[in-house]
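Reply to dn_fold:

You asked what the input looked like. This is it:
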Amino acid sequence: MELVIDRLSKQYKNKIAVDRISLQLKPGVYGLLGANGAGKTTLMRMLCGILKPTGGTVTLNNQDVSTEEYRTMLGYLPQDFGYYPEFSGVDFLLYMAALKGLEKSYAKKKIKELLELVSLKDVAKKKIKTYSGGMKQRLGIAQALLNDPKLIILDEPTAGLDPKERVRFRNLIASLGKDNIVLLSTHIVSDIEHIADEVLMMKDGQLIYQGEWTEDNGDLEKFYLEQFGEEGLYE
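and this is what came back:
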């Protein structure tokens, strides 16, 4: 399993949002770090096939991002996910499974497994409008996993969560990275420190760092501060 990003670019009139990024990612958790406006969301939207690049290519196991084969291997949790507040958690997942073209008996079995995985089994029949922010995010993770994706893209999944929910979420993401490629975008440094196998750092549309972050590299938070200032450093 390999995601290959080759000289990927996106330009809006006079602004280059993503500037010739190249990466080769294998199973593991990759933390995409950068201040707001660095180009993280634009990059992720291109990796999901939502946004057409100005230049470059994206392939997963040699399947181009524009193909149905690529989409069947993709799970995506956007930063602003559209929930239906009057739906129960289980009804929402059944609806999303139908949109993904999953067979109903398979979907029911898979939803039962996922509700257990994200610790929502006990509130599965309650309306989403009664869920906390963390519960909604965990439901979002569940919908992203309905089709057993090999590439899981999560855009700011822990923003606004309390510390307890954030730890629960980190543990879930870490477990997903054992067999899948998980790309986690955030501007919360502590999320990256705890679970990422590799750190990817973007600034002004460019990749300014890629690799494992160990104690030999120094303090990640300090490096982040040098690049971006105080923005994003909160718990």
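DSSP finds eight helices and ten strands in the chain.
Hope that clears it up.
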